[in-house]
Amino acid sequence: MELNSRLGSVDSLDPNDEDMPYSDDETEDELESPLPRTDDEQNRINQETEDNQVPSKKDGTWKVKANDRHFLELPEFKKKHHFCFKKSKYAGNAIKTYKYNALTFLPLNLLEQFKRAANAYFLALLILQVIPQISTLPWYTTLVPLILVLGITAVKDLVDDIARHKMDNEINNRKCDVIQNEKFTESKWMNIKVGDVVRLKKNDFIPADLLLLSSTEPNSLCYVETAELDGETNLKFKMALKVTDEHLQQESQLAKFDALLECEEPNNRLDKFTGTMMWRNQSFPVDMNNILLRGCKIRNTDICHGLVIYAGADTKIMRNGGKTRFKRTNIDYLMNYMVYTIFGLLILISAGLAIGNAFWQEQIGTNAWYLNYGNDYTPSYQGFLTFWGYIIILNTMVPISLYVSVEVIRLGQSHFINWDLQMYYAEKDTPAKARTTTLNEQLGQIEYIFSDKTGTLTQNIMAFKKCNINGKTYGGHCREDGATVDRIHPVDFSWNRYSEGNFKFYDHCLHHSIKYEKEPEIWEFFKLLALCHTVMVEHNEEELVYQAASPDEGALVSAARNFGFVFLARTQDTITINEMGSVNTYEVLAMLDFNSDRKRMSVILRYPDGKIRLYCKGADTVIYERLHPDAKNIKDTQEALDVFANETLRTLCLCYKDIGEEEYEIWDRKHKAASISMADREAALDKVYEEIEKNLFLIGATAIEDKLQDGVPETIAKLARAEIKIWVLTGDKKETAENIGYSCQLLDDDTEIHYGEKVKELLNIRQENRRNMEVVTTGKQKRYDPFFSGNKKNALIITGSWLNDILHEKKKKKKKKLRLRRPKSKEEEFSQQEAKYKEDLIKEQLQSDFVDMACECSAVVCCRVTPKQKAMVVNLVKKYKKAVTLAIGDGANDVNMIKTADIGVGISGQEGMQAVMSSDYAFAQFRFLERLLLVHGRWSYIRMCKFLRYFFYKNFAFTLVHFWYSFFSGFSAQTAYENWFITLYNVLYSSLPVLLVGLLDQDVNDKLSLRFPRLYLPGQKGLLFNYTNFFISLFHGIFTSLIIFFIPYGAFLQTMGQDGEAPSDYQSFAVTTASALIITVNLQISLDTSYWTFINAFSVFGSIAVYFGIMFDIHSAGIHVLFPSAFTFTGVAPNALRQPYLWLTIILTTGICLMPVIALKFLYKIIKPSEGDKVLKNRKKYEKEEALTRRPVSLRRGGTARRSAYAFSHGKGYADLIVSGQSIRRKPHAPRPAVSRVGESSLATQTS
Questions:
Q1: What's residue 864's pLDDT?
Q2: Average pLDDT, the chain
Q3: Is 344 marked as a binding-site residue?
């Protein structure tokens, strides 16, 4: 009954959780689309046309001719490249990620830099300054900073591009053997072409997408490691076609190979390939099992040969890269808008002052006989020229040095990340790496993290932790007598020559029982683990090397091996194990492999004494249904399974059944008939398997730990306290993903989980409510209630199929047909457009609702999703929440997601480096993400915000003095300062202190930053730099400029020096205001500095000293003699600054500027302290306290979904391969004697 219901559900309208959605590359003409209804006559015409048409070959437009490079240059394969030039559509195998070469660097880099509005603006200013009629400042005041900016940026771009060149050259210059001139010749990867036949050796990377032709393994099997594609280190096997295996083993045969392959165009589907090979007047189907993908690594195969199908940019791994887009931070966008605002203010102020100059010229200037301009300009024209003069003078409100300083700060912060020893992974000698220098402050604003699972959260390493045998649980810290202790040394397996040094087990009671054979059930338990599997074994220098279809299965066989039940060898119909020193060979009568429906695996064996026994392992939900009524220990095992599930361990039930000879023969006939059935063979086999897998007797249960990376639960918990939400996006099965969710504490006891069905139901209710509201209301925006009521934590677990179904992304295959359609009327076109508009609107509403629902949850797990879907989910959150996102992964299937997110992080240190190459930041362990965000990200954000606020302030204070001075200079565009002071203000006099604050400042140290994650919240909310802060800096600058100008102006108004001279001239006034300004702005940054070092103090007082030193030099008589036109303030500084009352004026000006700031800071800390202020207040107490205790692992009682995640998630194993004999080497050998040699007295002496 269960089987029928299961089989009958195939045609259900609901998505299948086990299915992966269609390819990302399927075009609309391959997918179902609504067509207009046609009448019967039209249908008849369509059918006749379709029947008479010549079969189209559109499906096989990609053609590859073996060993024929000239084939690629045929006209039919040419396509337009530039203008009328054509080139072959087949890409070369060289990859290119660099942007410049020696010839194009200078023009292209300058072109890119002048695309930035600020650089173009300053270039325009430079052009204005060389026009004598409007120039109010020398040209060098703009040229020197502009060259500095362009030069620093160009050097940084050059260094980055050289690194890309080196990486490209390293990959392109790898070597492999290619058939040329009828023999194998060593060639570089970049010289490989489509159609070449290549030879690869063990541990070689695959240079292009290849059709496997032959190998040295039986039946031309080839084992590959796909870590660079998906982060998984377990091996996968590929197999050559039988015809190429038989006829293409020798070099001469390969050189004469001339097959034609027709297949699909290049696409990004990693699990799909369809093609046909035509050779010797026959056609042979080719599928994904015959394809070796670029980026994979050859393992356990001495030599293999392949035909290049896709090269370079056409390979699937490169197609999965997604579009590379230039990423910019929120602060970048905000800074640009603020610069545009300042440009607007600049134009308004200049226009106002120009109008004032026109009126002044009209009323006063034309009547002043002493003002002889040497021209006859009208007041209006003079005002027009003055407008441009003020544009030049006031341009320092947006100084070009701002962009240089930002680049320097970002570069320094990137190096701090690279140098952080606490993010260095010593085990694999992998430091953290900031691969970009433009996104550091964005790390302090992350709201959503999208993480891959395999290789990112987990190590993809399974460990045998516990078991239950005959109702008794083993795996704790137990002595030989069964007494539990708190601490105990691991079991010593040195008596077993096959034991693995890295296997740790702490239950000495189980070990003691096995060695002394106290309980037969324990021996039977481990015998089952050693016999019931699809693992393959290799003997490598007397070492056993297991190759498993999944890490789980490998962990179980390894556990049996360490406990003395060693899997030694297998043939097509036998399996040999060493049972505590005794080597036995069992005949394999049948192997019933795993699949996603069965959730179990069985093997039927004939013992040496002739007894037939079935061993079975699988999920408890399917095993318990098939147990014999007299089976024992069912309740005890159930309780153990509950405990294992609460500890987030992956479990399996083990059982057996003795089969009579007659019963087996009857079943075997049915099995053979089902195995050759042409109609629905899998269903027929499932039905036969059901007949034999019943009335089983329970032996026990295993518990495997899917090992998380160190510190993952603690990291996730800490990031959650910083209100960062973590979503897991994985291609794994639902049960596996859910199990990991509990392990890493994304899910816990109090979490209510909602699956695809519930999500769709809630979204449909919201849609229905929206339609009802549209009928009732008159267009007012309705604010909907939350999807989930109450205070309970909620989580979504949704598969890729459900995601497509819910978001109307689902695509259905259709058969291509020629359809003749009558012309559409205007009404039909309008109707179709309206229907499409409504469909798009509904789709957008659904997407928005889904994001709202997901964001109400504490955790979201999307499983069985494609790379494109991962990117789609990230993009939805960015689109509808305007949130800052971070994606982290380790495989090529994560590249699209990494490129789509605002910040991309790659996990390095594994074999796969595709994610790292596409990432913005890279490190070896997920736990380093905590430090990257909560320490480096938060510090970078605070530093950049403080830098920008102060930079805008000091330049407003500096520039607006010209504005106040204009009212006393006839709006004549006369500068209030000396020209050299204007040139050097942002370069030398005020740049270093703020630069060091941007590099070194920190409100609290790294330990307190990690201890109090809520310190991260201001960055998420953008509280430290926004338009409010900008206008505060503006008004602060206006206030400072007022004081800087009017207090010296008042002091100079009616003043006499102590020697009877009147120093109230323009030049003395300029020196006084400049001196007050330099002291004020440098002391102001001192008030804003939270973290004082010697360097900070030296920079503040050093900047003031440098100012006075340079000023006295450029005001000296000696330099005036050398350059009389450039240095006109001869002797001004020594003359003015020897007057005590001018020093008093400077001190008074500085004090009035700073006292309100000091008072406000004091009041804020007392009345409205920030989170940082509160932590700083108790800093010493916190530093003395011990670190916070680790959060305990959450438990969930009665959870069954996670219990058998292994059985639910296990893919099909090597059973078909084994029973077909294709994995068994051809060379003859006597298996039994060889096994005996391996096993003789192999398990050292056992005490009796």
A1: 80
A2: 81
A3: no
Tokens of 696: 């089983």
Mean pLDDT score, 117-130: 80
Phi, psi of 38 (to 5 degrees): -120, 155
The rounded distance, in Å, linking the Cα atoms of 471 and 521 is: 10
CB count within 10 Å of CB 1192 equals 8
> Do 328 and 438 touch, CB atoms closer than 8 A?
yes
Point out the catalytic residue in the list 24, 177, 230, 452. Answer: 452
Q: Binding site annotation covers 731?
A: yes
pLDDT tens profile 658-702: 999 999 999 999 988 887 776 677 788 888 889 999 899 999 999
Residue 302 has pLDDT above 60, yes or no: yes
Q: Is 611 annotated as a binding residue?
A: no
pLDDT tier at 1217, thresholds 50, 70, 90: low
Strand, helix or coil at 699? strand
pLDDT bucket at 1214, cuts 50 / 70 / 90: low
- Amino acid at residue number 1106: V
Q: Is 1049 exposed, middle or buried (0-12, 13-18, 19+ CB in 10 A)?
A: middle
Report the alpha-carbon distance of residue 640 to residue 624 in Å, rounded.
Answer: 14
Choose among 600, 598, 609: nearest CA to 682: 598
DSSP at 938 = H
Cα–Cα distance, 470 to 182 (Å, whole number) = 65
Query: What's the sign of the alpha-carbon dihedral 769, 771, 774, 775?
Result: negative
Q: Is 231 annotated for ligand binding?
A: no
77 is in an annotated binding site: no
Looking at per-residue pLDDT, the higher value among 527 and 1218 belongs to 527
- DSSP code per residue over 586-616: EEEEEEE---TTT-EEEEEEE-TTS-EEEEE
- On whether the CB atoms of residues 178 and 160 are closer than 8 A, the answer is no
684: left (phi over 0), alpha (psi -120 to 50) or beta: alpha
315 marked as part of a ligand binding site: no
309 has pLDDT over 70: yes
The answer to whether 654 and 616 have CB atoms below 8 angstroms apart is yes
893 in a known ligand binding site: yes
Q: Which tens digits make up the pLDDT trace of 794-822?
A: 888 888 888 887 776 654 444 444 444 55
Alpha-carbon torsion angle 114, 116, 121, 126, nearest 10:
-30
Measured in whole angstroms, the distance separating CA 878 from the mean position of its chain's CA atoms is: 15
**pLDDT, tens only, 373-431:** 656 778 888 888 889 888 888 888 876 778 778 888 998 999 999 999 999 998 888 89
**Cα–Cα dist 1240/582, whole Å:** 8
Q: Taking 90 as the threshold, does the pLDDT of residue 593 lie above it? A: no
Beta bridge mates, 83: none
672 is in an annotated binding site: no
The predicted structure's pLDDT at residue 391: 87
In degrees, to the nearest 5, what angle opens at C-alpha 129 toward C-alphas 124 and 133?
120
Taking CA atoms, 652 is separated from 525, 575, 716, in Å, by 12, 22, 28
Tell me if 168 is assigned to a ligand binding site. no
Burial 804-821 (b: 16+ CB within 10 A, else e): bbbbebbeeeeeeeeeee
896 labelled as ligand-binding?
no
Cα dihedral 98→100→101→104 (10° resolution): 160
Backbone angles phi, psi at 952, to 5 degrees: -60, -45
Active site annotation includes 68: no
- Determine the average pLDDT of the residues in 1195-1200: 42
Nearest by Cα to 743 from 1193, 1137, 319, 317? 1193
Give pLDDT, residue 809: 63
Nearest to 1081 by CA among 980, 1186, 988: 988
Is position 453 annotated in a ligand binding site? yes
What pLDDT is recorded for position 177? 93
CA distance 951 to 990: 9
